[in-house]
Amino acid sequence: KIWCCLLGTHQLNSCLGIQLSASDILLRQKRNWVIETFTFDEGYSGAYPLYLGRVNIKLTEIHGPGVDKEPLNLLKIDNKTAEIWVMQPVDREKHDQFKLIFQAYKKEKGDINVEMGINVDIIDTNDNEPKFNNDMYEVTIEEAPSQGTELINVTATDRDSTEKNRKFSFSIESVSPTPQNFEFVINEEPDSGNGTISFKGCLDHEKAQKYTLIVKATDHGQPKPLSSSTTVIINIEDGNRHRPVFTKQKVRLQGVLISRLQVTDEDTRGTKAWKAKYKIQGDTNNNFRIDTDPETNEGLLYVQKVACKSSFTLLIQRAFENIYFAQETGD
């Protein structure tokens, strides 16, 4: 007979949920049947040790992870009472199940005939927030990209085991300085953990050379969603968006040569008779002066001082001669 629930063959088959005779069981040496499964929530925050339950079978020595294999001493099984206890917290992301093995034996001879199993399943709780791959992201772009241009990608991961706790969404929590006439947006690639930041509107370097975004990843776990954030810096380079414009210039005219007056004289070049002398008439404020070029005999007309008038009429005479030249100057 086998020590399992009750000692009879029919009771043994019922306990194991199989249709085998006692002789079949004796022939199946080292065969493993799971006779009980317990569950433990990794989010349990109470006192330890924690009672899980009792196995309705006489136990021999039990082996397996959590008992005599790593992680050691996490589970405690009382061979006399068949009670199972959890001795410390368990992280499902490291251990999702513990499979324990014990031996059933024939009472009369004590021969070991079959291995049986007890499973302890760890229930996932939302104990991991999504985490970004980088604490900070940074990109530099020109100020004139097309609306909707992808600026930068961010990536996050959540270590929780089940999909309901592992799934998360991105959001832009803040932008500094506050955008004017445009906005940053983030689009998600489903089930990839990637978010792409783009913009709507027009980026203008003259309004801001840098924007600092706080991007948040929030999971969908219950009862309380968990989240983390990262910083994204977007630098805006000045683009060629403006034509150069002339502004009012201040020009210094005093002493500027404005005209060379040419004369012809048949006298011998370089003699006193050949040399010309010039005189300005009509310039009552002495705004101009005229000198003689000793090499060419030309009259060199200069601005002597700046006046508010926009035009002048000057009469230029060569000395001892009639008027040879009259010239009107403007702006």
Automatic annotation (TrEMBL):
Domain of life: Eukaryota
Subcellular location: Cell membrane
InterPro entries: Cadherin, Cadherin-like_dom, Cadherin-like_sf, Cadherin_CS
Topological category with respect to the lipid bilayer: Single-pass type I membrane protein
Annotated Gene Ontology cellular component terms: adherens junction; catenin complex
Source lineage: Eukaryota, Metazoa, Chordata, Craniata, Vertebrata
The name this protein goes by in its record: Cadherin domain-containing protein
Main localization, broad class: membrane
Transmembrane helix among keywords: yes
Organism, as annotated: Poecilia reticulata
Alphabetical GO biological process terms: adherens junction organization; calcium-dependent cell-cell adhesion via plasma membrane cell adhesion molecules; cell migration; cell morphogenesis; cell-cell adhesion mediated by cadherin; cell-cell junction assembly; homophilic cell adhesion via plasma membrane adhesion molecules
Keywords: Calcium, Cell adhesion, Cell membrane, Glycoprotein, Membrane, Repeat, Signal, Transmembrane, Transmembrane helix
Record PROSITE patterns: CADHERIN_1 (PS00232), CADHERIN_2 (PS50268)
Residue ranges of domain Cadherin in the record: 73-132, 133-246
GO terms, molecular function: beta-catenin binding; cadherin binding; calcium ion binding
